[in-house]
Amino acid sequence: MSIEYVKYNPFRRKEFALKTIIENVNGKIQVKKKSLDIQAEKFVKKIIENRQLLTNEYKQLVVCGAEANNNDNEIIFDYVKGITLQESVLKTIECNDKKGFIDILYVYKEILTDQGRIPLKKTSELTDEFYSVFGVVPNGYTFEYLPVSNIDMSFDNLVVNDDKLTMIDYEWVFSFPLPINYVIYRNVITFYNKFKNKLDKNKFISVEEVFKLFNIYENDINIFAQMENSFQNYVHGNNSNIYNKYLKETYYLNDILELKQREASNSIAQFFWDDGTSFNEVNALNIDINIQNRNEQSIEFTVNEIKSIFQNDFRIDICKLPCAIKIIEIYVKYADFNRKLNISHTNANVIDGNCYAFFHDDPQFIFDKLENTEIEIEKIILKVQFIDFNLYASTIVHKFKEKETELLMINSQLLDENSNMLNKNNDLTNTIDELISKNNKLSITSDEIESKNNELSVSLHAIELELNNKKEELIKVYSSKRWKLINILGKFILYRR
Questions:
Q1: What pLDDT, in 10s, does the model give residues 22-36?
Q2: Which of 195, 207, 374, 432 has the most beta carbons within 10 angstroms of its beta carbon?
Q3: What is the domain range of residue 162?
Q4: Could you give the CA distance from residue 147 to residue 178 in angstroms, rounded to a whole number?
Q5: In degrees rounded to 5, what are phi and psi of residue 171?
Q6: Rounded to whole angstroms, how far apart are CA atoms 427 and 367?
Q7: Domain count, the chain
Q8: pLDDT digits 0-9 by tens, 45-100
Q9: Is residue 394 a part of any domain in this protein?
């Protein structure tokens, strides 16, 4: 027995964490899925139950055989050789056969219903299980659904062999009502993410046009996008953001073996120049490289006769596979000296310093046109080192978790500072309230004083009036004849004494 390939999924929650192993046992290829954690044992057993659920529903479509090994908490799948539906779809794109492409899409929907043998039902009622996995959708949303839904029934998980169509993967199967158009949406989005460069390059058909073929419109797309986001949170937990941002280009079982076979042989690095007809295979230099070589490599393109690199940008496709690569140095070699060359653009999914990760099979680096000099250019040279893809993915996750921890600490500090600011604000508010209260009291005291003052003024005025009245009365008395007589008598009496 020899192990051909091992793939770990470092992003899933522990209860869903599996590793995929492709083995060659006496010349027979078999695929294993094994739990990485004791918490995932239940999930492994659920996959066997999924096969039974699907077998009960599908009679025309073959469900790939699988056998549980309970002692090792693993499942052994039959390896199915043949042509995937994905390969058929890609051929229509390469041949610019839009009608053939659309025909396959309609065939795909027929496959979902087992050529119409499984009747679709309609509902707007959702179960608690639905809410726990796919979140909340708008009330009253009505949809058609299958009795059992395998949301991983993608183009690449359907293999044709000897006039039989086989479903080769069924990790995520649900027996509660789930929109059939969500299954279609998920497959189409995955396909378009994975082969975006091919589709954009050929300007073939937009994803919106494909959705319209299945009567999937803006409202449905918004709902399905929310469902997919909830599902990724359910599967990946705290790592869902990392998954959504960098790993939407999913690779399935059949891809893994194909990828392994392609890695076993030398890949090709290509140099493209634009002579006014854009980048194309005619204006290209090809060099064999070995991406399995983990040592530093020198990739050299002889460009002394290519004049358009002084008029237009040029491009280097480092290989034809998903890869992780470290750029040690890129430079232009002249006759007597070297000049550093800077990357102006890349379609890498992750850039970490001088390391680049591509989760698709068309890795590109684009460079600005060169300065035109009289000195002859000999070569453009890249010093690179290919990195183990799975190891690099694990490293990225570790870095993201470190950064996440750092951000959580910063967030905690900010929360503490915010709490202190709130406390200070509360103290300031209390002080302001006290000042307002004292000011109100002073205002009341001032009003009382003013009132008393007014009362005193009124009393004083009354006294003054009374005093004036008394004076006037006294004046009248002094001027009266009686007062004069009394005054004369008073003087006479004093005289007689």
A1: 888 887 888 888 888
A2: 195
A3: 2-258
A4: 9
A5: -70, -40
A6: 60
A7: 3
A8: 999 999 999 999 999 999 998 888 766 688 888 888 889 999 999 999 888 888 99
A9: no
